[in-house]
Amino acid sequence: MTTLLYPQGQELVQEILHDPQITYLVGQLQSHHLESYEHSLRVGALAVDVGYENTLAREQLLMLGRAAVLHDIGKRDIPYCILGKEGPLTNPERKRMDAHVRAGFRALAAASDDTLVRKILVQHHEYQQRPYPRHGPDRRDVSRATLERRSSDAAVLCLAQMLAAADVFDALAHRRSYKEPLPKETIERIFQEEYRGSKLYAEQVLRRFDS
Fold first, then answer.
1. Is residue 142 pLDDT above 70, yes or no?
2. What whole-number distance in Å separates Cα of residue 8 and Cα of residue 63?
């Protein structure tokens, strides 16, 4: 369904996955929810592929790849009955699902001192029509320290937007427990009307859609 343009990107993702800490975290996600694990690997490959198209330096590619394969690691803490629910989530279930972003931040804080990867992980969720965690109804509950962690330089912002485009695209283009894969025309419309991130990166991921 998705054609990757840079084979070296897949090699880089495999290199990232051989890091012991990442192997451990991703293995936990695989054991808890296979669909989220497979989604994370696809997003990692796609985000890095877009990174190569934009001539990122190796250090930036590694940051992007790490953040991409770990972007849903917080779902380890979400009950399987919510992750695998076939119908719409209730408001309490949605709030619990949204909490996976902060859970992922905490998991990475405990496992690594790479603050830039954690910033990318948090920021990439903020380009959807209903972004979170920054604009959620519980913003008043977010500490000032948490908000300050989201501030970053332009490079981190770009990486977060590459990840966001890859994440949204993969979620739309593949079957999930709550939806069937969407056709290309529908995905293009959603990116055009609802997506708040970089249109350049959106166009780049859409060019990789086979059907």
1. no
2. 16
Q: How far apart are CA 134 and CA 121, in angstroms?
A: 13
- What is each CA distance from 126 to 31, 71, 123, 183, in whole angstroms? 27, 13, 6, 24
Domain that holds residue 164: 7-127+140-206
- Write out the two tokens for 81: 């009955």
Distance CA 196, CA 62 (A): 25
The strand pairing partners of 2, in sequence order, are: 209
Kindly state whether residue 2 falls inside one of the protein's structural domains. Answer: no
- Rounding to the nearest 10 degrees, give the CA dihedral for residues 108, 80, 65, 117: -20
| CA-CA-CA-CA dihedral for 162, 116, 73, 163, to nearest 10 | 0
| Cα→Cα distances 117→65, 108, 131, Å | 9, 8, 19
Q: Using 50, 70 and 90 to split pLDDT, how confident is the model at 144?
A: very low
In this model, does residue 41 exceed pLDDT 60?
yes
Burial class (CB in 10 A: 0-12, 13-18, 19+), 87: exposed
Q: What is this structure's pTM?
A: 0.86
Residue 65: enclosing H or E segment and its boundaries? Answer: helix 58-69
What CATH number does the domain containing 63 carry? Answer: 1.10.3210.10
Give the number of domains in the chain: 1
Band (pLDDT 50/70/90 cuts) for residue 183 is very high
